[in-house]
Amino acid sequence: VQLQASGGGLVQAGGSLRLSCVASGSIFVITAMGWFRQAPGKQRELLAAIAKGGSTNYSDSVKGRFTISRDNTKNAVFLQMNRLKPEDTAVYYCAAKSPGGIYDYWGQGTQVTVSS
Question: How many CB atoms lie within 10 A of CB 58?
Answer without folding.
Answer: 17
